[in-house]
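Figure 2 data, in text form.
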Amino acid sequence: MNRALFLLLTMPVLLAPNAVRAAAGDDLGPLLGNQVARCWNPPAGSTGTVTVRFDLKKDGTLAATPVVNGLASAGVAKAAIHAIQFCTPFKLPPERFSDWQHVVVKLRASP
């Protein structure tokens, strides 16, 4: 089964309890979400939402370059990829690798 961890992060970096959802368990969403949120820094004055898909290795590093889906300005898309790359390696429970190997993150920029 191909499972993915889904997150929604908003700027400022406050995570609403029901804004983070994990397909494999509610505890993984906040764990990964807090790590990504610390690195998410969209361009000043930018708005909109960007979805980033990426795969991780068991050590928490990226398996490949993150992919931005949807329509986003070049600045927001670049900031989203940078946030994912800058935050690695992610600190996640290795025994639950199958739960967080595939990740989809929605990042929202708001003024």
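Caption note: Residues 5-109 form a domain with the Fusion Protein Consisting Of Minor Coat Protein, Glycine Rich Linker, Tola, And A His Tag; Chain: A; Domain 2 fold (CATH 3.30.1150.10).
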